[in-house]
Design a protein that fits this description.
Largest sheet: 8 strands, mixed
Radius of gyration: 22 Å
Number of domains: 3
Strand order of the largest sheet: 1-2-3-4-5-6-7-8
CATH architecture of the largest domain: 3-Layer(aba) Sandwich
Strand content: 5-15%
CATH topology of the largest domain: Rossmann fold
Order of helices and strands: HHEEEEHHHEHEHHEEEEHHHHH
C-alpha cells in the first residue's frame, strides 16, 4: 500500500513547521472534517528539512510502518526564519542553513544555466535520511513506500527513491512538486538512464503553467523523468508552492480546473475545446500590436488546443457509459451523505 498523491501533498503543507517537532509526536495532515494522523518517525531541520512519518489511527495508535513516507522541503528562502528572531541561537543557525541551501540550488542549476550544473548536493542528505529512516523502522518490518520532494529537493528525492527502488527491486512511489534543475541532474549523469526508466514508471511531478522560480534553472523547469501533471495558475497565485495544485487522489482535480476554464493535465478533448473557446472569446487584444496581426492567433480556439497538447499532454479518453453511470452514482451517494449529515442523521421526509 502507498499514500495517494493528495495525502502526500498535505504532508508537504506543514512540513517546515513539523520538522521542529519531536520524534514520536502525532500530527494531523488532514482537515478538521477529515483528519489524517501520522506519527513522526524521524525528522531533520538543518540545511535539508525532511520528515519521515507513519500513518496512525485517531488515537495515535496502530502505526502502519508499511506506509512509511519521507517528505523533503524545498530550498530555504531568505527571511523565512524571521518569526524565530526571539530564539537567537536558532535564528542565526537557520540564517546559515538558508545561505547554504540557496548556494546548493545555485550550483545545481549551474549558476542558473551558465554552467552545466549537477545533481543537487542535497541528494547526499536525502540519501542519508533514507538510510537512517530505514534503520529506525527495521524492527517493525517497515518499508519506505512513498517519497516526496519540493523544488531543489525534487531531483534529490528522485535520485534516492530510484537508487533504492532498483537496489531492492521494489516500487517506491515518488510525488514531487516543481522539481528544480532536474534536467541538469540527468544531463550530467547524476540521475542515470536506468533511474530515469524507473522514475518514468513510479514518479509523478506536479508543475505550474508559468514555471514560477524553476525557470531560473536554465531549462525552464523541464523535468525529463516521471509523469508530469501540469496545472494552470492565475496572476497572483504562487505557482511554486506545493499548496497550489488542487488534487484529487493520484491526479489533479480536473473538474475543479474545468469549472474555472483553466487547463490541467488529464482533460478530455471536449473539455479542452470548451475551455479553448472561452479563452479565445475572452482574450483581451493588446491594441499596441493588434494592427500588426501579432495576436490574431490568440482569438482562435485552435491556438489554445495546440498549446494544451504541447504544454499539458495528450487528451484523456472520453468516459464510457459505464464510467458516467459510476460517476453519477458516486455523486448521488455523496449528496445523500451530505443531506444525512446536515439533517443530524434524522430521516428526511
Amino acid at each position: 500500500m502507498t499514500l495517494s498523491d493528495q495525502e502526500v501533498q498535505r504532508l508537504q503543507f506543514g512540513l517546515k513547521k513539523n520538522v521542529k517537532k519531536n520524534e514520536g509526536e502525532i500530527i494531523n495532515a488532514g482537515t478538521e472534517d477529515s483528519p489524517k494522523f501520522y506519527q513522526i518517525v524521524y525528522r531533520q531541520d538543518s540545511i535539508t528539512q525532511a520528515m519521515a512519518v507513519v500513518p496512525v489511527d485517531s488515537k495515535g495508535l496502530n502505526p502502519n510502518y508499511q506506509e512509511t513516507t519521507i517528505v523533503v522541503a524545498g530550498t530555504q528562502m531568505p527571511f523565512e526564519n524571521s518569526k524565530e528572531f526571539g530564539n537567537q541561537p536558532y535564528f542565526w543557525k537557520k540564517n546559515r542553513d538558508i545561505v547554504d541551501s540557496s548556494e546548493r540550488a545555485f550550483f545545481a542549476s549551474g549558476a542558473f544555466g551558465i554552467f552545466p550544473g549537477m545533481l543537487t548536493p542535497q541528494s547526499d542528505d536525502i540519501d542519508m535520511f533514507y538510510q537512517i529512516t530505514e534503520e529506525k523502522i527495521k524492527s517493525h518490518n517497515g518499508i519506505i513506500s512513498n517519497m516526496s520532494g519540493h523544488s531543489q529537493a525534487g531531483p534529490g528525492v528522485a535520485y534516492t527513491a530510484s537508487k533504492y527502488g532498483l537496489k531492492q527491486n521494489r516500487t517506491i512511489k515518488v510525488t514531487n512538486f516543481m522539481d528544480f534543475a532536474a534536467k541538469k541532474a540527468v544531463d550530467t549523469g547524476g540521475i542515470s538512464k536506468e533511474q530515469v526508466a524507473y522514475l518514468n514508471k513510479n514518479a509523478t511531478i506536479y508543475r505550474d503553467s508559468r514555471g514560477d522560480v524553476v525557470f531560473l534553472d536554465g531549462n525552464s523547469g523541464y523535468v525529463p523523468y516521471g509523469q508530469t501533471m501540469r496545472f494552470e495558475v492565475l496572476e497572483g497565485e504562487d505557482g511554486h508552492s506545493p499548496r497550489t495544485p488542487v488534487m484529487k487522489g493520484n491526479k489533479l482535480d480536473v473538474d475543479y480546473y474545468y469549472k474555472r476554464n483553466l487547463f490541467a493535465t488529464g482533460m478530455t478533448e471536449k473539455q479542452v475545446r470548451k475551455i479553448a473557446e472561452y479563452k479565445a472569446k475572452t482574450y483581451k487584444v493588446n491594441v499596441v500590436i493588434a494592427n500588426y496581426g501579432l495576436e490574431d492567433d490568440k482569438q482562435n480556439p485552435e491556438y489554445y488546443v495546440s498549446e494544451y497538447l504541447k504544454e499539458y499532454g495528450d487528451f484523456a479518453p472520453e468516459p464510457s457509459k459505464q464510467d458516467l453511470i459510476a460517476i453519477n452514482r458516486k455523486r448521488i451517494d455523496e449528496l445523500h451523505a451530505s443531506l444525512k449529515t446536515s439533517s443530524g442523521d434524522k430521516k428526511l421526509v
